[in-house]
Write a structure and sequence with these properties.
With about 250 residues, this protein is mainly alpha-helical. Helix content is about 55%, strand content about 5%. The chain folds into two domains: about 130 residues, Rossmann fold; about 80 residues, Arc Repressor Mutant, subunit A (Orthogonal Bundle). The strands form two sheets. The chain has a three-stranded parallel beta sheet with strand order 2-1-5. The protein has a two-stranded parallel ribbon with strand order 3-4.
């Protein structure tokens, strides 16, 4: 038995060594989930005909990604640096830099931070002469962020009776207009906000099933997600696409 496997209990070893098909590790805090994940990656790398860059490992924090690579390197050495391991946002930004032209962006698009995003929304609210108390910039930004996380583009937002009714009750009937202007301004400026790094990646994969989606499905033969239970709807849909999961296709109009 390989030395690192001796550090695991029987159940953990099964999760690490079973590399064919999906595996879900359910365990409480401090029970060794991250160790299982990293050792599973190390174990996969050591299999015949497996190349490290065919492995995609997604995390929620840069700290987790760094620790993951450090743990893997203790087992397999420098090969750990060839694994695509990072946060959802950093990995997807990397892919978008390569494929951006297919959705109307340049590879050197700007990434707006929260202050940039709020500044733009605030300018739109001013231009539309809307009441700042009703159209609080943080609230409006949260509505737009929620829409993107649920794969609701401006057109679908405008046509969604429930969302429009919510905005009407909250005395914010023009959120759909702000959302539409915000997305158009970002596109014109060649910019994406943090939500767009996920949202626009889904759009990219959805609109380019043959020349982009298939490319990355073939590239990433192994996909692992740390803290999978924390994925939102959008993150789950992207993971599902990349793993070529055969389920109901999410349909929308962009």
């Amino acid at each position: 038995m390989k030395p690192y496997l001796l550090e695991l209990n029987e159940i953990q070893r099964k999760a690490v060594t079973n590399i064919k098909g999906p595996v879900l590790v359910v365990a409480g805090p401090g029970s060794g989930k991250t160790r299982v994940l990293t050792y599973r990656i190390a174990h996969i790398i050591q299999q015949p005909n497996v190349r490290p860059w065919e492995i995609l490992a997604l995390t929620f924090t840069n700290k987790a990604a760094k620790e993951m690579k450090e743990r893997i390197s203790k087992v397999v050495g420098d090969k750990a640096n060839q694994v695509w391991a990072g946060t959802f946002h950093s990995i997807f930004a990397k892919i978008l830099r390569v494929e951006a032209s297919k959705i109307g962006y340049t590879s050197n698009f700007t990434i707006y931070d929260s202050d940039d995003s709020k500044s733009l929304i605030n300018n739109i609210i001013k231009e539309m002469n809307l009441n700042k108390e009703n159209y609080n910039v943080n609230t409006v930004r949260s509505r737009i962020s929620s829409a993107k996380s649920n794969l609701i583009p401006p057109k679908a937002y405008r046509e969604n009776v429930e969302l429009r009714e919510q905005d009407k009750i909250a005395k914010r009937p023009y959120v759909a207009d702000i959302y539409e202007k915000y997305m158009a301004r970002c596109k014109k400026a060649g910019a994406m906000d943090f939500d767009d790094l996920l949202y626009q990646l889904y759009v990219l994969l959805y609109k380019n099933p043959d020349n982009v989606l298939e490319k990355y499905q073939k590239k990433f033969k192994y996909l692992l997600v740390d803290e999978f239970q924390d994925t939102n709807h959008l993150q789950y849909q992207i993971v599902r696409k990349l793993t070529n999961y055969e389920g109901t296709e999410y349909m929308c109009s962009w």
